[in-house]
Amino acid sequence: MLIGEVLTTLYGLKQEDIKKALELQKKLGGYIGQILIQTGSVTETQLVHALSEQLKIPVFNKDEHEINSEDVSLFLNGKLDLEFLVRNNFIPADVDNKKHTITFITNDPLNNSVSDYVIKTTGCNVLMLLATEKTVKELSMIYTTDRGTDFVSLHVEDTPEKLKEMAFEAPVIKFLNSLLSRAVELRATDVHVEPVNSRYRIRFRIDGILHDMEFLEEAFYLATVSRIKLLSGLDIAEKRLPQDGKFSTKIASIFLDIRVSTIPTVKGEGVVMRLLYRERLTFDITQLGLESDYAKTVIDIISMPYGILLVTGPTGSGKTTTLYSMLMRLNNEERKIVTVEDPVEYQLEGINQIQARSEIGLNFASALRSILRHDPDIIMVGEIRDRETAEISIQSALTGHLVLSTLHTNDAPSSLFRLIEMGIEDYLLNASVIGVIAQRIVRRNCTHCSHKYQPSDDVLKEYKLHDIYARHRDLVNGDMTFIKGDGCEACAGTGYRGRIAIFECFNYTDDLKETFLKRHSLELIRSLLNEKQSFRTLREDGMLKVLKGLTTIEEILRVC
Questions:
Q1: Which in 32, 59, 120, 512 has the greatest CB count within 10 A?
Q2: CB contact set of 67 (below 8 Å; sequence gap of 6+)
């Protein structure tokens, strides 16, 4: 099979991408696989695995293959030009004198000139292991201390002209492309580039947790930050003020919208890239993690013709995804839906979305006033941050609109008291609020390395897992199942892969409104919810997912 066919079979490479790469190959020459990487159609890792499948050459795995550099150096001494091998990305890994073979790690298995040179010079057979170019470069450090061969800047200059020149150097461009490719492969949502003491580190946020990836030297850090700024339309020379920008790219046939934010710190600029995956969007309310009873409650609430539904939780708890899922369920030709957001993270077809711009006076409150003159049926407000926005949202609900919005509170019942603190009268709150949802995001168990285990009786008793199982046996739909992951390559050694939300929600019914109006008591509201609506707290809903084998006790305790 041709490499394009292998990539299509393994990773769904599109025919138009292959056709485009073939046209570029005719004009520029080179390997078709490298052209596909440069056009963002595949990643280096995907190409390596495809070449392995095509050529029947194993892929290098540091856990399985040992590099015997001392034996190799003794054998090669005076026989082969080590500098020539390293320059051609052939890293000697092992020598077998009995079998007369030398094993090399390479990203260029089709370079027959190197193989021929080794065979003719030593009389040994050549075995190969495939790896990405980045891995090959890292392994080359075993045989050479020349770490500056790729990057030509010998000293640090931070003038705008020098920074721009550095940003266009080939190693910097290749490094950033490789960085984003790795982020996509590991399903990262954010890439952090930041100064730490005298070093500069890169971290990926994977399933909500930050992981150290590597450290950069100062010159390379400055060049990388400058490259990111250039792509996102930011001012390279401005380092004293925060800046925000964005750019789009294509990696492994995945289109990415990348939102960039920079902040000045005492040790240098920190940069965060938020990766927004256009083609991974599945705003399906049934896939959020709602149990069947809570799913029915939420659907009943958003089916009401008017009122306010509040979705609460801290930053990064998935509130926007939940709101988008509701909007997609409500969206049809008979309804006009308008949103005001800051920022607009994803563009939804058939929905009018407004980007708030406080610098020109277009904030949530002013946008809401204009939205009401456009005859909407449903309004989504990105966040209720102040009294003015809260008052206009309530007025919108009282005049026949369904309003969806977010609020920062620790749990669902606290949202009512948060609005009171903002200065909203309790009778207006009772007249407009129809329901409240609180949520957190937890990591799912990795399906590749997870196994069953049995917690101790003390753990079962401490977290009342038997009681939760007894109350919600119908939702567990089977026996208690405890699962955890050991960590593997698929989950980057964490034991978790993917995320799911845990919830608490309630329909703000008349009996709750009456109680709230008479006595502003949070504990009384919670006790009524437990009596009337089979209310579950966030932790209880999380433990329910533990009983179903979806996540672990430790993960629930981490978020609530």
A1: 512
A2: 91, 93, 94, 105, 139, 142
Q: Which CATH class is domain 3-136?
A: alpha beta
Pairing type for strands 378-381 and 402-407 reads: parallel
**Boundaries of every domain in the chain:** 3-136, 160-279, 285-443+499-536
Q: Which residues pair with 381 in a beta bridge?
A: 340, 405
CA dihedral sign of residues 210, 213, 217, 222: negative
Which region among 38-52, 166-180, 250-264, 533-547 has the lowest average model confidence (pLDDT)? 166-180
Give the position of tokens 């009778």: 427
b/e 136-157 (16+ beta carbons within 10 angstroms → b): bbebbeebeeeeeeebebeeee
Q: Is 205 helix (H, G, I), strand (E, B) or coil?
A: strand
pLDDT range class, residue 97, cuts 50, 70, 90:
confident
Residues 6+ apart with CB under 8 A from 524: 515
Contact 102, 95 (CB under 8 A): yes
Instruction: Give 405's strand partners.
Output: 310, 381
pLDDT one-digit tens code per residue, 155-183:
455 677 777 777 777 788 888 888 998 89
Answer yes or no: is pLDDT of 505 > 80.
yes
Residue from 216, 207, 245 nearest 151 by CA? 216
* Pairwise CA distance, residues 142 & 127, whole Å: 19
Instruction: For domain 285-443+499-536, give the CATH number.
Output: 3.40.50.300
Predicted confidence band at 153 (pLDDT cuts at 50, 70, 90)?
very low
Fold assignment, 160-279: Beta-Lactamase (3.30.450)
Enter the tokens of residue 323. Answer: 């709101």
